Input
Amino acid sequence: MRITDSKLLAAITALGVEHKPALALAPLTSLGIGGTSDVLLIRKHEALPALIRLLRESKTPYRFLGGGSNVLLPDSELPWVVLQLARQDPEVRFEGNSVYVDCAAELGRTVTLCAKHDLGGMEGLIGVPGSIGGALRMNAGAYGTQIGTFVREVTVFRAATGRIEILRGAEINFEYRHTSFAPDDIMLAVRLELPSKPYSEILQGIRICNEKRRASQPLNQKSAGCIFKNPPGGSAGRMIDELGLKGHHVGDARVSDRHANFFINAGHASAADMLKLIDDVRSRVRERYGVELEEEVIVWK
Ligand code: EPU
Output
């Protein structure tokens, strides 16, 4: 969506928000899929309440994009303006076993920085792509670790109240790839509490997780990680693999040969190709196993 009203644009930029017109969005996502839209880059969190007020008053629909690693955007021009948080400086601040992290910070980089301060616990999350904010929203997890375990406080913009609020960790429900945040909440910053651990020990854990990941996941290809959540007690990847669907494709959207729950953009896949592949695989799993797979990737529609 394009913002063409010059008064609105002037009011937006007066808030210190950067306007990037008709930006190609595919490069902002790990799948490399998506059309174009105006992007509003938020440099200061405090600008959000006024920005959202302006967008609402002018009836400009918007969506918030985090690190882009778990999202499937539509093709061609999007019917929303896209909001993004600019990276802050510093992104991470330490105070004893507490770590204050800006939500635009990369998860992997944060894990490494914490390790250098002898703070561990998050080793399993090392290879998970995306931002801290995205990890919080999804309660990202891998190798027995979920980020929610360490969350003590989240600073969040609540669209429902139009205000920035601080939620205590205990007020938030963290479940498997699901949290109690509202879909239109925008995560801004978090305080994590991490156990003390010697750097060398954390590094060893990180190495082991990296090796496991490299052995089982297609890390050098464009994907959004696992496309489906695992059903209770089951494995989406194993079911898709057992159906012989590795390499199955719609256009350039392809089931990975390495891990069947990773769907790859093998060239110039469109969102339409990827959605068709998702639906096709889901219905085959339903027919064979009677299981309805739920997407893990967030589909903008
Ligand atoms: N399997 C197959 N064929 C495949 C893929 C997997 O037979 O093509 C089998 C494996 O051999 C294993 C089982 O399925 O016995 C589970 O596979 P894996 O250990 O790879 O774990 P997963 O359940 O597929 C989950 C998370 C990953 C996370 C890994 C490691 C979900 C949906 N996926 O994968 O997270 O990295 O565990 O902890 O929960 C993501 O969320 O995007 C993601 C990649």
